[in-house]
Amino acid sequence: MSTVEFSEAARVATNPLAGLERRCLVWIAGRLPLWVTSDRLTALALAAMALTGVSYAAGPGHPGALLLAIAGLALNWFGDSLDGTVARVRRQQRPRYGFYVDHVVDCFGVLFVLAGLGWSGYMTPFVAMALLIAYFMLSIEIYLATYCLTVFRLSFWGVGPTELRLVLAAGTLALLSDPKVQILGQHYRLFDVGGVVATIGILVTLLVSVARNVRALYDAEPLL
């Protein structure tokens, strides 16, 4: 299959950790042994999210499993963040293959985590489903914009995947002390509150991004 007509999208990351993270990833990638390939790192990222989901599901009966969930998030960062960096450092890029596989894996990974949370009772199934749907809708919008505008946005409002992992890890640590929070005298599941806030944030981001991209595409292709 010819790659002559394929134009790789510009990557846009505005999250505050992006610059430091990029330098760290390049440094790590240059020192990894050759048997650590991009494909193996991608597989590690997927397995780590499956581990995180299973750990959440096991958490109510085995609180120590929550620490394993945090370890899974760390492993996911390592695999998901490094697979593309390793390919670029070693000049082994496969832009279409890498983009497709990486983001299919991301979708399955989020499914595993939210399924585990919904199963565990830390998050009600309805909230988990709403958050999953919102995430998939934003993902679809991002991928459509990547194709139509050749711009791949990695973060919104200064928040990217790394920041989200850190917030999720912090929330997981909080579960060890108290899985509920009190708001206006009422007790709610901590991850239900976080899930509702995240769902609303994602939907607002989706609407803003759709409006911006529709305007950009309309201006780029005016009716004569």
Structural summary, described in words:
The strands form 2 sheets. A two-stranded parallel sheet has the order 1-2. A two-stranded antiparallel ribbon has the order 3-4. The protein contains 7 helices and 4 strands, in the order βαααααβαββα. It has one domain (16-220): Four Helix Bundle (Hemerythrin (Met), subunit A) (Up-down Bundle), CATH 1.20.120.1760. Helix content is 70%, strand content 6%. The protein is globular, with a radius of gyration of 19 Å. The protein has helices at 18-29, 38-58, 65-89, 95-120, 125-149, 161-177, 190-220; strands spanning 10-12, 151-153, 180-183, 186-189.
Write the layout of secondary structure elements.
Layout: E1 10-12, H1 18-29, H2 38-58, H3 65-89, H4 95-120, H5 125-149, E2 151-153, H6 161-177, E3 180-183, E4 186-189, H7 190-220
Parallel strand pairs: 1-2
Antiparallel strand pairs: 3-4
